[in-house]
UniProtKB/TrEMBL annotation:
Belongs to the phosphoglycerate mutase family. This is Phosphoglycerate mutase-like protein 4. It comes from the Eukaryota. InterPro entries: His_Pase_superF_clade-1 (IPR013078), His_PPase_superfam (IPR029033), PG/BPGM_mutase_AS (IPR001345), PGM_Phosphatase (IPR050275). It comes from Brassica napus (Rape). Pfam families: His_Phos_1. Signal peptide: none annotated.
Length: 232
């Protein structure tokens, strides 16, 4: 049928269209606790957000593949999306994990400066090459890790629309890769939709940024904790 072919041709062969989605809310997001690599699952609000974004994506042009960070909060969100978009399998990639936040992980954000002052100072540093004590990553390491992961996915899926479910800090790095001269990004909310087009020659373009219209009716537009510099 006509409709089917016009949907499939929504993506030009010269680029991959990658729908980057932040995971749904977790109880730690709601409590303003720093997750990093700690494997916290979605809470009920987060699951409902995931259903909303999945419904939305199922009505948009066809998704070929769903990739996800291997941390539960992203993987659960991705599974809900994959089920709605044609019972797709979720392909996990640890390179899509949140930034490792070292000694900050597990702390309530407000208390971090008192409990781990050195890690907190490193975390707030404007320098991108500062590692966070306790095995944490610098912003440069995060950037290299997650932008090369997205580039690999883009190279593999020219002419297709794929979903990548990941984390606030990761999406921020991807934004910087696409718009290096832009000012700092606002909060990246849970289940926000961010559409990137990756062209030949490493060119990245943002088509849609920070779209949470699927959450309008829900009262789920929570603080977006973890979607700003606090990561997680």
């Amino acid at each position: 049928p006509m409709a089917e072919s016009s949907l499939n041709s929504s993506v030009d062969q010269t680029y991959a269209e990658i729908v980057v989605v932040r995971h749904g809310e977790t109880s730690w997001n709601a409590e303003r606790k720093i997750q990093g690599h700690i494997d916290v699952e979605l809470n009920d609000a987060g699951r409902q957000q995931a259903v909303r974004v999945a419904e939305r994506l199922s009505k948009e042009p066809k998704i070929s593949y769903v990739y996800s960070s291997d941390l539960k909060r992203a993987f659960e969100t991705a599974q809900i999306i994959a089920a709605r978009c044609g019972n797709l399998e979720v392909l996990t990639d640890p390179h899509l994990r949140e930034r490792h936040l070292g000694d900050m992980q597990g702390l309530v954000y407000q208390e971090a400066s008192k409990i781990r002052p050195i890690a907190y100072k490193a975390f707030l540093s404007n320098r991108t090459d500062v590692d966070i004590p306790g095995g944490g990553e610098s912003l440069d390491k995060l950037y290299d890790r997650c932008t090369s992961a997205l580039q690999r996915i883009g190279d593999k899926h020219k002419g297709e629309r794929v979903v990548v479910v990941t984390h606030g800090g990761v999406i921020r790095s991807m934004y910087e890769r696409a718009r290096p001269k832009a000012r700092n990004v606002d909060k990246i909310l849970n289940t926000s939709v961010n559409v990137f087009r990756l062209f030949d020659g490493d060119k990245w373009r943002i088509q849609v940024w920070g779209d949470v219209t699927h959450l309008d009716q829900t009262g789920f537009l929570k603080s977006g904790f973890g979607g700003d510099r606090t990561s997680g």
